[in-house]
Write a structure and sequence with these properties.
Strand content: 15-25%
Number of helices: 9
Strand order of the largest sheet: 2-1-3-4-8
Radius of gyration: 19 Å
Order of helices and strands: EHEHEEHHEHHHEHEHEEE
Number of strands: 10
């Protein structure tokens, strides 16, 4: 039995906790709020502080993020090795591979992703988001300014045309699917439903990291950096 410290984004908490519960390994777990995605520098500092605060000996610290707008670039550990899934963001964890994610995105470039964690933690595009945001703007800026701000908000969504729900069959899936369909209908987007593949996440948690194309192992004294190729991230010797 291996001993791991998992640090990741709360949007994957259902999936991660489910698979950890059936794993043969021991875990300590820490989740960060999804909002750190919006501020890569804050994500980096929060993640580095969490790693630096580890006092126990672990077989590895599992970093449950993708590159996330370079939010994990520069991360290192001076004690425990780090392991990271090669991917741009957490969608790869649910899709099962960065190749499947890229293939779907290339065929559906206007895709906005929905999943249990994103729906629960974050107001996804749809009628509920529109109405709540509009009320907030009216209270703060008045009706006329609120209408203008909502036009800007809706303009941001015009580059999307597809609401894709990833189904790993965890949690109240029918409720989440219904919510995503309703959002798609209100936005006049296409609705798509993809069967998730848990293999990447399962192997990540089980310690099966032999496939270098899927997992990056970062030994002490090395830092994570974008690789600017199909591997997405690499380990680089830290400067003294």
């Amino acid at each position: 039995m291996a001993k791991y410290y998992y640090i990741g984004c709360h949007v994957l908490w259902r999936e991660v906790c489910h698979y950890i519960s059936v794993s043969k390994n021991y875990f300590d777990i820490k989740f960060f709020d999804w909002g750190l995605h919006c501020y890569p520098d804050d994500l980096r500092s929060s993640l580095q502080n969490a790693i630096d605060s580890v006092t126990k000996d672990y077989d590895a610290i599992l970093v449950g993020y993708g590159l996330c707008s370079n939010g994990i670039a520069g991360i290192k550990s001076n004690k425990n090795r780090l392991v990271v899934v090669r991917g741009h963001d957490c969608i790869t964890h649910m899709m099962g591979s960065k190749e499947r994610y890229r293939e779907y995105f290339d065929k559906n470039p206007g895709t906005y992703w929905y999943s249990p964690g994103w729906i629960e933690d974050h107001l996804e595009p749809g009628q509920e988001r529109y109405e709540q945001l509009h009320r907030s703007y009216v209270e703060t800026f008045g009706e006329e300014n609120a209408d203008y701000l909502m036009e800007i908000e809706q303009d941001w969504f015009r580059k999307y045309s597809n609401a894709a729900y990833i189904d790993l069959n965890i949690g109240d899936n029918e409720r989440f699917k219904k919510y995503t369909r309703e959002c798609a209908d209100w936005l006049k987007w296409k609705y798509d439903e993809l069967k998730g593949d848990p293999a990447l996440l399962l192997n990540f948690l089980d310690g099966n990291w032999t496939d270098n194309s899927k997992y990056l192992i970062v030994e002490s004294g090395y830092i994570i950096q974008p690789s600017y190729d199909s591997l997405i991230i690499e380990a680089v010797k830290a400067e003294d």
